């Protein structure tokens, strides 16, 4: 025990380290004559400043001081410095709370003491630890630590990464030594195949470049050495530009182009990343203010900018972005904010609130690099993003590994079901693009459409009249958002988001567009099953279908046009039946959205070839029946037992029987909806099922005929022929009700409405 003067107090210091580290002044016991209270205060003061309150290990300050003494005594370069970093500690803290996190840190300290009983140990901050020890059996000790941490909680993927540096004799800069050990540790973070690494000469340049980035960051901002490059984002359905991602590129006078992944990581560690992100947003707003007059379409340009998790901690990022946006008079819908998935946490309520705050103000918030983190699916459950950007690694093995396509398809399907849009990064080939378009991935980005480039060449590329890429009109964005919400992978593609189920199928499916005339009809999307459906009914190509429809020569094409009108007016799923080339088909249709810019409407169409479901030996009989059906606009089955069922219907009226399945209720609803008021009483009398046998005896015919003025769903009034064909089925009186248009309109003079009795 020796006596020292500490902060004006005479103290007795007791060394608790082994004899060979006798120079280290560790925990103290203080005796101050006649100052009992002051003794307690001083003892507490020194312990708090010398040791970490949670783990009892040294603080970083005392570790560095004592490590300096170790290095002075070590003439052979035999002291190993190890930097430890606990991966996924954040998830542990969130699961078990603050106290649980502290308990885990104390357990780490205990494991380190067991592994290095004669070492100098310290907790630097958070979940980072440092050890200085004789360079002996290091690999065995590291394996012990790895296994002990893993066994502590097997429900979480807890891993301890380590970096090792053994300084040569004569190197005594403790800060430099610790940096090198940390750099070795960072070299294995995020890797599953390696738990520790050794610092070597190849990492020396990395450390120098890291110091350069931090030291020269503000100078780079001031001299605009950090440039903003732009890469287009594409709508897969139309191949139009929907925006540009603004990306930082550092062109250093001393080092040339510094890799963005490197300097972004360094700036995050130095808590400077928010300065960079705000700089990018300001520069991008300035750039786009200049180029909007550059050429046709640039007034439609939108920008995606990246935000770090730390932005939400280091500054009021919402207020800062709002200030810049208002300064440059940029609307919220021109800025899209991308947050990297690895920065998100499923239980970070503050970040959730900030995301919701941006969205409430009118910004779109995207998740970037989806699939690159540990808990992608849980993150989707907690956050409501407008767009998910699928990490480019999903496409890297496309065409080589069949699982890649299956995973991407499943992710797109899942995103549709939870109401989020998708963008695939890393698209480099037409094959990849066609696949993404086929599965309904709404947007894509990659070298196929353009590499990141500075503003001037980007503006030149997309402003030319002969440019292969054009801008999507800003006012059409909402239209395409609604169109893209159709889940082309679902068994129920006509269902809205809340109506969808989890089935996937290969039903024929198409998305079509039409304006006020048939000439504006076109296809936006078809799947493979739809093309096969067309071939099955004798149509060779989409071009043939479009040409036939636009001509309007066939009844079924005019029927399709009226069906689209009816869908637009009702906003509901509608359907109609038709025959073509000996095939009897049913087509289901629903209006999705309207584009106010071009005044066109989008519809999702799902046809069914019912003939493909018939037995081959009945083809001739059914073909004859289909041709008979093509004469009528609707055929219904009615029974005296009260059952009503629609057998066939074209596009001009609703089935009715899907709303009311009783004969009386169906007839009353039909009369109220489609028969002109002055003829409704006569109509209901004509369909009086209780007098069928009596009436048949009177007229001595096998059917009844009547004329009534009838509306269609478009409100047009025509004179129609109504036929009732009675028969018995299982001893019950039944009839078929068949309706067809007359070869003229209601102005036909010789025809009087009502039943024909002679």
Would you write up a description of this structure?
It is a single chain. With 758 residues, the protein is α+β, with helices and mostly antiparallel strands. The chain has five domains: 1-50; 51-199, Alpha-Beta Plaits; 210-472, EAL domain (TIM Barrel, Alpha-Beta Barrel), CATH 3.20.20; 497-616, Beta-Lactamase; 631-756, PAS domain (Beta-Lactamase). It contains 24 helices and 28 strands. The protein has an eight-stranded mixed barrel, surrounded by five helices. Strand 25 (704-711) and strand 26 (717-729) form a beta hairpin. Helix 3 packs across helix 4 (138-152), helix 5 crosses helix 6 and helix 19 crosses helix 20. Residues 1-36 and 614-618 have low confidence and may be disordered. Residues 210-466 form the EAL domain. Residues 77-201 form the GGDEF domain.
List keywords for this structure.
758 residues, alpha+beta, Alpha-Beta Plaits, TIM Barrel, 5 domains, eight-stranded mixed β-barrel, six-stranded antiparallel beta sheet, 38% helix, 25% strand, disordered N terminus
